[in-house]
Amino acid sequence: MQITASTVSLTVDDVAASQRFFTTHLGYIEQAAADGFASLSRDDAALDIVLLARGTEVLPADQRDQHASGLILAFTTTGIAHEEKRLRTEGVEITMPLREEPWGERLFQVTDPNGVIVQFVEWVTPPGPENA
To answer: Could you count the other beta carbons within 10 Å of the beta carbon of residue 83?
Structure first.
């Protein structure tokens, strides 16, 4: 098997609001859209995103009323401090400020209009005796 792309499908109440968020602030491009549906991608290695309106019949009946929750859409990037500042300047609410974890992960989070948590991660060398 060769995987040629990866896509996450998110069920949201307002497809247009999430679509605007991802295209305006995160560099996604609309590939296709219809009532209650949008397919977004980027030119780099980022994950493709499909947005589906909650209740749409393309979803299995037992999943139609579920909302994208309990997940974090995480993107590994470089220049994370710059990205946090850029998003803040654009008016995006930073829901978890930039911080560095002891294991060497720098991260911050934003939340889209439908409550989808987007986390940005940059890996740095963790502090330790050999790096002191």
So the answer is: 19
| C-beta separation of 83 from 77 below 8 A | yes
Better pLDDT: 128 or 14: 14
Instruction: Please give the single-letter amino acid code of residue 92.
Output: V
**CA-angle at 31, arms to 26 and 68, nearest 5°:** 60
Give CA–CA dist 45/82, Å, rounded. Answer: 20
Closest by CA to 116, choosing from 8, 29, 30, is: 8
pLDDT greater at residue 126 or residue 3: 3
Instruction: Looking at 1-132, list the stretches that DSSP marks H as alpha helix, in order from N- to C-terminal side.
Output: 15-25, 80-89
Sheet holding 117-123: strands in order across?
A: 72-76, 117-123, 105-111, 94-100
The pair of structure tokens assigned to 52 is 């589906």
Structure tokens, 117? 């948590």
Entry pTM: 0.83
Residue 113's closest CA among 40, 22, 3? 22
